[in-house]
């Protein structure tokens, strides 16, 4: 029975993993403008995208977000944990390329 007590998680750990993570957003359009954001794993991606756009004084519609080679729509309502993001991950942000004139 003592084995069951030793298997309990640390007080700060949630049963499914950490409840908060820090993500880095790297602005590929400018040099050295990385933004680190600490958030809950249940935070929807749209909130993270809006935070970046606001802090960079840019429109959300003119940005493209990439994570591990996949494009993520800035209007995504999916929680960051469901996108596979973990503590310390980097999201690359670039301006949307407009074709035509």
Automatic annotation (TrEMBL):
It holds the Pfam family Rad60-SLD. Transmembrane segments: none annotated. Residues 21-100 form the Ubiquitin-like domain. Residues 1-21 are annotated as: Disordered. Residues 1-18 have a biased composition (Low complexity). InterPro entries: Rad60/SUMO-like_dom (IPR022617), Ubiquitin-like_dom (IPR000626), Ubiquitin-like_domsf (IPR029071). It comes from the Eukaryota. PANTHER family: SMALL UBIQUITIN-RELATED MODIFIER. This is Ubiquitin-like domain-containing protein. It comes from Allomyces macrogynus (strain ATCC 38327).
């Amino acid at each position: 029975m003592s084995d069951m007590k030793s298997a309990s998680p640390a007080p700060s750990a949630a049963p499914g993993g950490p409840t908060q993570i820090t993500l880095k957003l790297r602005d590929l359009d400018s040099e050295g403008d990385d933004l680190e954001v600490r958030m809950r794993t249940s935070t929807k991606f749209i909130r993270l995208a809006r935070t970046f756009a606001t802090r960079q004084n840019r429109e959300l519609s003119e940005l493209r977000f990439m994570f591990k080679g996949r494009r993520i729509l800035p209007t995504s309502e999916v929680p960051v944990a469901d996108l596979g993001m973990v503590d310390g991950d980097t999201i690359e942000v670039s301006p949307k390329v407009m074709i035509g004139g």
